[in-house]
Specification:
With 447 residues, the protein is an all-alpha fold. 67% of the residues lie in helices and 1% in strands.
Length: 447
Amino acid sequence: MLDSILGGVAGGVSLALADPVVAAQAASAPAAAPVVAASQIDSGSTAWMLMSSAMVLLMVPGLALFYGGMVRRKNVLTTMLHAFVAMAIIGLQWVLIGYCLAFGKSIGGFIGWSPEYIAFNGISHDALYGDKRVPELVFAMFQGKFAIITPALIAGAVAERISFRAYVLFILLWSTFVYCPLAHWVWASGGWLFEKGVLDFAGGTVVHIASGVSALALVLLVGNRRDYPDGAIMPNSLVLTLTGAGLLWFGWFGFNAGSAVAVESPVAGYAAVLAFTTTQTAAAAAALVWMLLEWKHTGKPTSLGVASGIVAGLVAITPAAGHVTPMWAIVIGAGGSVVCYLAVQCKARHRKDDSLDAFGVHGVGGMWGAIATGIFCFTPVAGLVNGGGFRQIGLQLLGVGVTVAFAFVMTIIIGTIVNLVVGLRVTDTQERDGLDITIHGERGYHL
């Protein structure tokens, strides 16, 4: 009986394939998708995360050039070194304890703690991160690059007068007691802001608002430069600044699109592509709007203005990158330039020496971007313009308010402690002669 059945099936298959129409249909039929184990690494996602991590790290030298070109010649090396030394200090801090505090098992939604994460001692090289099918070490290194660049952003506000040893101690303490808790609240499973539904795709609150507000707090502690606001303080090389802005724009694609974490699933892949597109769109819109605003206001479009516009747009789109359409990204980028331009113009009126506009661009731009996310988002929830009402705006305002208050108060506390221990500010003689030669014994240019 079994032989008869098998013979009939074989005969039917032979007849079917003999028919050219049936044979063509059989040949064109899609092959069944292979079953992939959830524990199997995805090579495409892993390669993308490795590349994104490298791109974000490249932003740190980009920031060094961006900031370094805007200070006076006598302080160019010190200013650039602020970014580079963060790669060393926070690069180690993140491996030893930072990742554990930020992404360890949540304790009450406020801090992470997993002993096996200390020094990565318990993370196997072949362990995968959650359900993303990428090694956890790749995810940890990607997040570590965010931890590096964030305190380096703060340095721009107090450039040309902060003590180098104070800066070294400050970024170590700030990253441990400000950045890591915020990263846990907003990004980690179990973090209280994450569980409430606050959206921050790539760091509007954790990176930009936190660094911008902390920069303002540090300015209040350190004070103005000895020549500000009455003396002439001219940039030493806007060529460096423009080059840095270009590197930041390039690296920001890894910063935002890489925050999708994986690309093997449709959801993650589409989010990465969306973030890549909105990043480009917002930065272009912001650069153009800043240039036009400056042209109208001063009569001249400047290279510094275009560079500032690029960064303002990138900052503004960061929290929204994977949540909004490209059309709304134009609005977010353009709006970021407007609010940041106004904030920078207000600096002179209030006579607070945010030297390189860390608060004016990163703090204000980050706040605008976070709130705009609640207005324009369409995924994973609908914002105001997409019929979602005001609920998400309220959540975004909660995230902004908490970040502002926490970062400001903690920075005042940490800064005060650092000031008592080593002193925050250089001597008047060091500031007058320049930090490059008086602290490091070097000069940026021998011309």
